[in-house]
Amino acid sequence: MTEKANIIVIGTGGTIAGQGKAANNTSAYECSVRGIGDILSTIPHACALANLRTEQLLQNGSENFSNEHLLAIGKRVSTLLAQHDVDGAVIAHGTDTIEETAYFLHLTLKSSKPVVVVGSMRPPSAMSSDAALNLYDAIAVAAHPSSVGLGTLVFANDEIHTARDVAKSSSFKIEAFRSPYGPLGYVIEGQPRYYRHPSRAHTLATPWSIETLGPLPQVDIVYAYGALEPEAVSAITARAQGLIYAGTGNGNVAAHLIEPLRDAVRRGVHVVRASRTGSGIVLRNGAQPDDAYGWLTVEDQIPSKARILLMLALTQARDLQALQAVFERY
Ligand code: GLU
Q1: Among 28, 53, 64, 185, which one has the highest count of C-beta atoms within 10 angstroms of its own C-beta?
Q2: Pocket around ligand 1: residues whose beta carbon is below 6 Å from it?
Q3: 146 lies in the same domain as 199
Q4: Model's pTM, two decimal places?
Q5: Cα–Cα dist 280/288, whole Å
Q6: Tens digits of residue pLDDT in 232-259
């Protein structure tokens, strides 16, 4: 028998730490109230998977998470992973912005040890809650040698997702997490099974280290529609260093918004054309002459991921070509 892995289970709040008044409260309940030790005590079987230690890092809904929260989570996880008696980490997290925190860790942690971010769509108090099994399975993933070197993973509803691709795609269903190219694998009976690996660079192969990152530049997102007023674009770009323009279809820009966006570039704002569709590639110089306007385009990153990536990119580069290369690489 091989030795059990040492896994740190970190609580940050969310539905997985929620409590409803009655078992039929699957969607109306108080979030971020139960401690991680308390939640873990409901799954004693998890002790057979790994040696477990807990830490309550935050107790907050992930809709509140600012860039400072991201940095705080990343720096603490990094410190814990550096300890010789920690083999991996599970982070219990609200599902609303799990895709952002996980992608941020995927790009900035300098460790090959498994990090699994997990949430639940129903609180532990609800009928057919996914909290206990998701946490149990996430521990199984973090403790398994086949998860080493895959970057940050997100576990939900039997599925192991790469942090790069996964996004929350339902406001209430248990089956809320989707990766456009499918999950990396599954867990069944506490046993992870992988069918593919992330192909884009992450963790040790990126130029960003959580250890040295300071305050992140302000990057905002604007959701496009035909009646969007130019003043709204000007207002949101007034303080930002970067703007993710979640355009219609293939990153399309309404005719009356081209000048406000070009003006933002003249003021030093890095404008990125993305798509509000939720998946697919935005073709550079396709719908718009990006080279002529000094605009960037995402490759296939959805707006929430593009915001994380541009914030990191802007900590090291300002040159258009270098910034564009980041969207092609990560
Ligand atoms: N407020 C919660 C959050 O932290 C709601 C979503 C959830 O955890 O499922 O994101």
Answers
A1: 185
A2: 13-15, 31, 61-63, 94-96, 119, 121
A3: yes
A4: 0.97
A5: 17
A6: 999 999 999 999 999 999 999 999 999 9
